[in-house]
Write a structure and sequence with these properties.
The complex is a heterodimer of chains A (319) and B (342). Chain A contains 10 helices and 12 strands. Chain A has 319 residues and is α/β, with parallel strands linked by helices. The radius of gyration of chain A is 21 Å and the shape is globular. Helix content of chain B is 30%, strand content 21%. The chains are: A alpha/beta (319), B alpha/beta (342). At the A-B interface, helix 7, helix 8, helix 9 and helix 10 of A face helix 7, helix 8, helix 9, helix 10 and helix 11 of B.
Chain lengths: 319, 342
């Protein structure tokens, strides 16, 4: 049994009011995540990669119970949690925590760093004194005198560390990090990622990293899943996916990641067009209108998920 | 003075075409209640004619301040404390608002980071594209046709119909294409692009970079490309200037600088880029320490406190830009021919 098992997860969002939809005879909601499955064991790191609107943050919000799924199952330590009650969620959130995307925006500007990092402890009725604050700040490598500061007195990297301290306050088993390095400078990016790696090595926490930064995924994740329009198009161990992508979208994403080497400029598979709307999905394969290798059947036949020696992909003509 | 040894800014343009813009000793201060911040100090840099110059550095290094001073859009509390910016005999550092208006949007134009906030949300794309042609001659139909022509140049599908669209009806990538079309509409000599792809997804980022490259070649304008993303700089730029704490610490041909960086900061910055680390690793390199306080810039080298190669001289003597050959120059004593540690 893995720590987290997600099977055929589907999440819908409302598009417009029910009444308006009924009058116009249009569907009132649409599927933002359609049929996603993955497992994550203790101490493992999974990278969820995709462009904006691919549904990766929606999955994160559902995993932590901020958005209800419409179908499928999420099992955490073997127990189904997709229909957990609010009371059960209170307990579950001591085992799962979230690092939000905006490092400064996710901290209340009116609380000191000490109150911010000990807030989860207070909520769950645990001791939340100065000792605890110092322990948590020490954990993320911030000096104890930061306890009296306010978020606006922190740099982006320091605010990130406070976010990590908050997420780790209850010693969770699962940490969900939504774009943990967005907006950080390269030299600071490494600090935050090294910090997460240290914490994982020490406590065996499982981490889901949501990002569009492939360079980061390559170095810090064990396995990765690439999302397009609410579906996984490819999933597998990170090194294998990088070495040999099977899905054309994965290949295009990897090539859209320019090497910082002017002598390596080359003709790459440049994708034309943009991500279509999940309200109006293309027929057949979601990716066929942008796929440089698309054939006629791609427009008519929806590809199945194919499992192949520990990896999976959704393509009729894999590379 | 040691700085007399083959130092004083050997112009990078020596033996080459006359640059479009020459920045010479430019310093910019920001007034704050707690004292002046010396955000740019003694910047000497050429923007080559008909080429793409990349400006890289981390947040707070002054790259945006430099870009904004080239188009006269510095904040109210900014003051040009010294130096010149020469463009065709005019010193941009001393222009009056009136003179800036004649230049801005005509000979110099700009693309901003977030295309949503740089377009007016309550008027149509067409209206905005006609408005910026207010100086041009010709009737409505003519200006409309020009607007469509430029939207086609930026490969916006179904350009004519987009004129009636509002910015919120377009996707982020399309909005940035509209901004590029608007910036090029007046055929500027200098296009300043301030992190134009930061708000975009990876596949769109590559589309926009390819588009900028193509249009730059077609129109032959100079581009100042501000970015913190080394990959896109390598992809797009001909020359590069690396900034740290308000100074240009290294500049030169992009291939040469990326292959053989001469300044320890440039070296450290490149080492931090996970894209340059070929073997998968759990430990990512970082640059320990923080930026110096720019209210009181350090006396010696600005990078000294974080530099693994610092020695006594770095403490006391501010390094000039030493010539490193082939147009490359670095503000580091290790490049002083008199210093044999290099």
């Amino acid at each position: 049994m893995s720590l987290l098992e997600v099977e055929d997860l589907r999440i819908r969002y409302a598009r417009q009011g029910r009444l308006k939809a009924a009058l116009r005879r249009e569907p009132y909601d649409f599927e933002a995540v359609c049929g996603v499955s993955f497992t994550l064991g203790a101490g493992e790191t999974l990278g969820l990669v995709g462009e904006s609107g691919s549904g990766k943050s929606t999955i994160a919000r559902t995993l932590i119970g901020l958005k209800k799924s419409s179908a499928g199952s999420i099992r955490f330590e073997g127990a189904e949690i997709s229909d957990a009650s609010n009371r059960e969620w209170t307990r579950l959130r001591t085992d799962m925590s979230m690092m939000w995307q905006d490092p400064v925006g996710s901290l209340s500007p009116r609380l000191t760093v000490k109150s911010l990092v000990t807030e989860p402890l207070r909520i769950h009725g645990r001791p939340a004194g100065r000792d605890e604050a110092e322990r948590l700040l020490g954990l993320v490598g911030l000096p104890a005198e930061f306890a009296t500061r306010y978020p606006h007195q922190l740099s982006g990297g320091q605010a990130r560390r406070v976010g990590v301290a908050r997420a780790l306050a209850l010693d969770p088993k699962l940490l969900i990090a939504d774009e943990p390095t967005a907006g950080l400078d390269m030299s600071v990016q490494g600090e935050v990622l090294n910090l997460l790696a240290d914490v994982q090595a020490r406590s065996g926490v499982a981490i889901v990293i949501i990002t569009h930064n492939l360079n980061l995924v390559r170095h810090v994740t064990d396995k990765m899943a690439i999302m397009y329009l609410g579906r996984f198009v490819e999933q597998g161990p990170t090194d294998q996916v990088f070495a040999h992508p099977r899905h054309p979208y994965t290949k295009a994403l990897l090539e859209a990641n320019p090497e910082p080497d002017p002598e390596a400029r080359h003709d790459r598979v440049a994708l034309s067009g943009e991500v279509p709307s999940p309200i109006n999905r293309p027929s057949g394969c979601d990716f066929h209108p942008r796929c440089p290798w698309a054939r006629d059947t791609c427009a008519t036949t929806e590809p199945e998920w194919i499992e192949d020696s520990g990896r999976g992909y959704r393509c009729l003509y894999p590379l | 003075m040691v700085s007399s040894v083959a130092t004083e800014p050997d112009r990078q343009s020596e033996g080459r075409a006359e640059p479009l813009v020459r920045i010479d000793g430019l310093s910019v201060d920001f007034a704050t209640p707690r004292g002046a911040i010396h955000a740019l100090r003694d910047i000497t840099l050429d923007v080559p004619r008909g080429k793409v110059l990349g400006l890289v550095g981390e947040s707070g290094c002054g790259k945006s301040t430099l870009a904004y001073s080239l188009i006269g859009l510095l904040a109210e509390n900014a003051r040009i404390a010294g130096g010149r910016i020469d463009m065709d005999g005019q010193n941009l550092a001393q222009l009056r608002p009136r003179e800036w208006r004649a230049l801005r949007g005509r000979r110099i134009s700009m693309i901003f980071q977030d295309p949503m906030t740089s377009l007016n949300p309550v008027t149509t794309i067409g209206r905005q594209m006609m408005d910026i042609q207010y100086r041009e001659k010709g009737g409505r139909a003519e200006k409309r046709a020009r607007a469509i022509e430029f939207l086609e140049q930026v490969q916006l599908p179904d350009a004519a119909s987009k004129l009636d669209a509002y910015p919120h009806q377009l996707s982020g990538g399309m909005r940035q294409r509209v901004c590029i079309a608007m910036a090029l509409l007046t055929r500027p000599d200098l296009l300043i692009a301030d992190e134009p792809t930061t708000a975009l997804d990876a596949t769109l980022e590559m589309q926009i970079v390819a588009l900028l490259r193509e249009l730059q070649e077609k129109f032959g304008c100079s581009v100042l490309f501000v970015s913190h993303h080394l990959g896109t700089v390598a992809e797009l730029c001909d020359e590069v200037a690396v900034m740290y704490a308000g100074e240009v610490v290294e500049r030169g041909d992009v291939a040469q600088v990326f292959r053989d960086p001469c300044h320890p900061y440039t070296q450290a910055l490149f080492e931090c880029d996970p894209a340059r680390i070929r073997e998968a690793t759990r430990r990512l390199p970082t640059i320990p320490g923080t930026l110096p306080d720019l209210r009181r810039p350090p006396k010696g080298c600005a990078f000294r406190a974080r530099c693994p190669k610092a020695f006594e001289r770095c403490e006391t003597e501010h390094p000039p830009l030493y010539d490193a050959g082939g147009g490359q120059a670095a503000r580091c004593h290790l490049n002083d021919p008199a210093e044999d540690r290099a």
